[in-house]
Design goal:
The complex is a heterodimer. By secondary structure, chain A is mainly α. Chain A has helices spanning 2-8, 11-29, 33-59, 66-83, 88-113, 118-138, 140-143, 160-183, 185-195, 197-202, 207-233, 243-256, 262-281, 291-305, 309-331; strands at 149-150, 235-236. The chains are: A mainly alpha, B mainly alpha.
Amino acid sequence: MIGLILRSMTKSNLIYLGVAVILLILPFILTGRSVQFMITQIFIFAIFAMSYDLLLGYTGIISFGHAMFFGIGAYTTAIFMDRFDASIFALLVAILVAVLFAAVVSFIVGILTLRLKSHFYAMLTLAFAGLFLVAAEKWRSLTKGNDGFTFKIPEFLRDSTTLYIVSLVCLVLIFFGLRRLTNSPFGRVLVAIRENENRTESLGFKVLHYKVLVSVVSGVVASFAGVLYMLSLRFVNTSVFHTDVTIDVLLMTIIGGVGTLVGPILGAALIELAHHWISGLADVHWIFERWIILYGTVYILVVIFFPLGLVGTIRSKLSGRSKKQHTTKKAS
Amino acid sequence: MDLIVSLTVNGLATGMLIFLLAAGLTLIFGLMSVLNFAHGGLFIWGAYAGVSIYAVTDSFLLAIILAIITGLVLGLITERLIIRPVYGNHIQQILITLGFMLVLQELIKVVFGPDQKAVYPPAWLEGSFQMGDVILIKYRLFIIAIGFLLFLIIFLILKKTRIGLIVRAGVMNREMVQTLGINIRFVFMAVFMVGAALAALSGVLHAPYSGVIYAEMGLEFSILAFIVVVIGGMGSFTGSLLAAILVGLAQAYMAYYVPALSLAVNMLIMTVVLIFRPQGLFKVKG
């Protein structure tokens, strides 16, 4: 057992654990509620972005409706907390329902479109997310429409430090879980699908099964991020279903680096901080109210010039250098 | 009877507007297998450009002309700056066109202001004809007429002219056309510009029809166009007309009889098509 743990303690794992420990101590130093709230948000969006990376980075599937799963998690939690008493039991049931609901929706969308070209999944998820947004706006008796509603959550989660630690623990667990998944034979097949779908199919793998399964996993994780988001916000409205949410998570994944899992976490931190900073600038000049232009432009530039993102670019530089050293050594 | 007629006219008019948007999408996809998620942005720019000149000059004809020019120019810019750099990479194309869509949508708010704008049909298209107890609103008939006219023109160009021949051949086999010494990139640029102009035209025609325009309209409408392209078969021009009419009619009838399901009905049609005929109702041979 100990041997197993020691063996899994590679250098990078040690670094990640070290960062996690620092982050665990952090809330006892930074005791301000708003600071803790912001870092909690970063954790939550990091989970959300990792779920997106599983699709885009590892399997090469583009979803334009990932907000849908986030929103499913958010609304399920909010409605359960509102309708039933704010107990731990109700919360657990809510999480279960949120996860199942997201699994069913992602399964249906996946089975319909993943056997076709990648455009179809992108279009259908966009359309489905639109449908969920309209439903949330129109089904007023359940969702209270665009105005949204506030609700109570279990007593012990109301403390910002507790929620911070809960979110951090979830982030770490999901990070290592997804890393395990992507390093497993299953994850290797996903990467093979991304690189060459036809060849993977000819090797005898049922590509559709893998793609549907990964889209379900991604939907479930995204939905869980939505649950956590609700715990931190204690207020829900239709904005969780907006395209902006999908764009945010896309940007986090792409800027951080697709197919790295660490990248999306970094990306989430960057984008959340940028949000914070830019909304502060709105008083300075009105153009900052239209921050999506800025985002869209950055996004287009990143797609053209840094398709690997931050982490990916750094990694390829590093490995390029070590390769060069290797060859020079050989030459000498 | 009068109810059925007016619902059908409604549906046909909506269908025609979606068709104008979907026609460009489907041709661009067929020719270069680029799915242009920024198409809704061109639609909304056409609407705003046309409406603002319409408000100044009070000439709807001028509005239509300006919208078409806006579409052509934006189409050129999109093709050159956005799609060409990532030519051949599907994932990057899909990602980048959505990014551009957002930039176009937000730029609308910067240039024309974030509020909704009310638009009325021009005087010569206002009012309605009455035949017995059937009331036909002039503007809707006008949209239907323009839609069918454009369909016929493009259809004839595609079928009867040399340019059309090249485009159709390009849809079937791009490499082969290129081997025959035709500059397929140039053809693609032209098709992209025409597609963008159709989208912009759809936008400006839609403005007096819905009576109000706003920046998010582009994305909402382009979702309908995507649904149409999927139902009609990606790359099929005739398919997009028939699918657009189907979607328009379904939406009009549903909006009257079961309003809660008017958006869901299109998704339902698309879902059924995807299950039983994933290549679309009219697959392009090739």
